[in-house]
Design goal:
The chain is α+β, with helices and mostly antiparallel strands and 320 residues long. It contains nine helices and 17 strands. The chain has one domain (4-50, 70-306).
């Protein structure tokens, strides 16, 4: 499988690669999660839920036949949409030139759409009767580490994810305009001004079907109820290597020893982890110096990726 930027090129959509790559620099989920294209707005996947029964037998005795278990999952895409409409005279007179101004507006539109999609990867989307689940809803309670923060709307999470065709990936409709155009198509039209009177305008829209799929719910583990970092991060239940050890252990146990492909957290939690990795060194009988660790980029070889798509204002997670 491939990330979105390489996927659109592989499908012959070379024109849109530059635009996607430009946006992907600011939305790490696009650069990390694999993506697939589908012809419709839903697709089904068969997931194995159990292995056949095996065992030793004595010579001359038979053994009961058994089959592996399967589950049929259905994944839905949602309509990712945006509309941009500007005064034609303003674009025509832009100091950057009309073409550059239109491109800048297009990049902003796509960036906003991709940031919206990335947030839904974690928290899910529901609108106009179309919805797809995110990692917070799909993770099993047995794969959640509770950091213990209990103040409402002051929590955050770190997610360990497995990425690939049989694990977690993004899904797009193959005819999405987002994938097949280098630029959003601008048209001339009429908009209502602030005084409710008509104004000549340029307008464009971003409309496409997008979603998220997890074909194996063991492919997501979570540290929930992380507290905000401050000078006493340990007492605020912020991210530490001890919590990461428990997270990765839970994931590996559920996946026969295989580690996740990446760990995502907020920038504040990455800072908390960085501070927790610092050390205090005694330099004399009565003096010490604090040594700050480098920015955490990995845990046990697993990339740590900070993202603004995760928030520090989550509700308190409970197992019920």
């Amino acid at each position: 499988m491939a990330t979105l930027a390489t996927l659109v090129t592989g499908k012959g959509y070379d024109a849109s690669q530059g635009l996607i790559e430009e946006v992907a620099k600011l939305v790490p989920e696009l650069d990390t999660f694999d993506s697939i294209l589908i012809p419709g707005t839903t697709f089904q996947s068969v997931a194995q839920t159990s292995d056949p029964t095996t065992g030793f037998r004595t010579a001359g005795n038979g053994i009961d036949a058994s089959d592996e278990g399967y589950r049929l999952d259905t994944f839905a895409l949602g309509i990712l949409a945006g509309l941009c409409q500007r005064d034609k005279a303003v674009f025509d007179a832009d100091v950057r030139g009309r073409a550059a101004a239109l491109r800048a507006a297009a990049v902003s539109m796509v960036r906003s759409g991709m940031k919206t999609l990335a947030g839904k990867v974690w928290y899910g989307a529901a609108a106009n009767a179309e919805k797809f689940n995110g990692c917070a809803a799909l993770v099993k309670s047995t794969l959640v580490v509770n950091a213990g923060q209990s103040t409402a709307n002051e929590s955050s999470s770190a997610f360990a994810v497995g990425i690939g065709a049989d694990k977690c990936h993004l899904v797009f409709n193959e005819e999405s305009a987002l994938l097949t155009r280098a630029e959003l198509e601008w048209k001339e039209g009429i908009m209502n001004g602030t005084n409710d009177k008509p104004v000549p305008s340029y307008w464009t829209d971003l409309t496409g079907w997008a979603g998220f799929a997890c074909r194996n719910t063991n492919a997501i583990a979570r540290i929930a109820n992380l507290g905000a970092y401050n000078a006493s991060a340990a007492s605020n239940k912020a991210l530490t290597d001890e919590l990461l050890a428990e997270l990765v252990s839970k994931y590996a146990e559920a996946n026969d020893g295989v580690n996740p492909n990446a760990i995502f957290c907020t920038f504040k939690q990455r800072l908390a982890l960085q501070k927790s990795r610092g050390t205090t060194v005694r330099t004399g009988a009565k003096s010490t110096v604090e040594i700050t660790a480098g920015v955490p980029l990995e845990y046990a070889g697993i990339p740590i990726i900070a993202t603004n798509s995760l928030v520090d204002t989550e509700a308190v997670w409970t197992s019920s």
